[in-house]
Design a protein that fits this description.
Elements (H helix, E strand, L loop, with lengths): L8 E4 L1 H5 L8 H12 L3 E4 L5 H11 L4 E4 L4 E4 L4 E5 L4 H13 L5 E4 L1 H4 L3 E4 L6 H9 L4 E4 L10 E9 H15 L3 E8 L4 E8 L4 H12 L6 E5 L5 H6 L2 E4 L5 H6 L2 E2 L7 H13 L4
Parallel strand pairs: 1-2, 1-12, 7-8, 12-13, 13-14
Antiparallel strand pairs: 3-4, 4-5, 6-7, 6-9, 9-11, 10-11
Helix pairs in contact: 2-11
């Protein structure tokens, strides 16, 4: 049995970090992650995706454990397929955010925890649904329902409000949300360069990947000062800033690199695998 005082938890982002630019996991990266597990440490994937969207990656990695999903809004035991932690939005805030998006002519998307509602996403009708959003939901087998009055429904089970837009429209929406809601909502954008779009996501202020990783660490008996976080995008900022060792990928956005303790190689050159291999050589197994 590993001495938990020497046990580390690695929080690893998926898109742009674990996955290469083609959206795949290289053999070297998979081997490096499994070497960390064999050495007795813990790995928690931490992603903006929900469980349905991320399941293919988990299956391919052959690693099922606690995972931080929806940018920290939920923690799922992927082996059992059960949510063990969830941070819902204030229903009034969720309603107002949906209204703000719809007022600009865009379709709002209210993410639901399928464990509680049987649905992944509620989507506005009579508004423009970006082609990239429609394609992604079709690809990832989401359970969708449309709503004529999304701002007016019961948002008790809403965990995130989002939309997908071209860059110019995304900038306008983010500025509008920040001006209208201030500190009531946390807003970030995730760029999907291959599609030329930005995913604009909105949460309560108490939701981020770091808080989700702390939930995982507590369940594994790992102290905060033994959490290592690796990522590349804006929803990785909190965990990279707060972790004992925060790592930015070489392909990370500038804001992420600026808060990181170290910048490693890009996801196109197995940067994650190289880092994990070097770390194990220096630190070894949990004993």
């Amino acid at each position: 049995m590993a001495d938990r005082s020497e046990l580390y938890l690695f929080g690893i982002d998926l898109d742009g970090t674990l996955l290469n630019p083609a959206g795949e996991v290289s053999d070297r990266t998979k081997q490096a992650v499994h070497a960390v597990l064999v050495a007795g440490h813990k790995v928690a994937f931490a992603t903006g995706r929900n469980h349905t969207e991320a399941r293919r990656v988990f299956d391919n990695m052959e690693h099922q454990d606690l995972a931080v999903l929806v940018s920290g809004a939920i923690v799922v035991d992927t082996r059992a397929g059960q949510t063990v932690y969830r941070a819902t939005m204030d229903p009034t805030l969720a309603s107002e955010l949906c209204d703000a998006i719809e007022q600009l002519g865009h379709a709002a998307v209210a993410f639901q925890d399928r464990d509680h509602t049987g649905v992944d996403y509620l989507v506005s009708t009579h508004r423009v649904v970006h082609r990239s959003l429609r394609n992604w939901m079709t690809y990832s087998d989401q359970v969708l329902q449309t709503r004529d009055d999304l701002p007016g429904i019961d948002h008790t089970h809403t965990l995130r409000v989002s939309t997908v837009l071209d860059f110019a429209d995304a900038a306008i929406l983010k500025a509008s949300i920040e001006a209208r809601f201030g500190n009531r909502a946390y807003v970030h954008g995730i760029i999907v360069a291959s599609d030329g779009v930005e995913i604009v996501e909105m949460f309560d202020q108490n939701v981020n990947k770091w808080l989700g990783l702390q939930q995982v660490a507590n369940r594994h008996g790992v102290p905060d000062d033994r959490i290592i976080a690796i990522g590349d995008d804006m929803n990785d900022l909190a965990m990279i800033r707060q972790a004992k060792l925060g790592i930015a990928m070489g392909n990370a956005r500038t804001d992420v690199k600026q808060v990181a303790d170290r910048v490693i190689g890009s996801n196109a050159e197995d940067g994650l695998a190289v880092f994990l291999e070097e770390w194990l050589k220096q630190n070894g197994s949990a004993r």
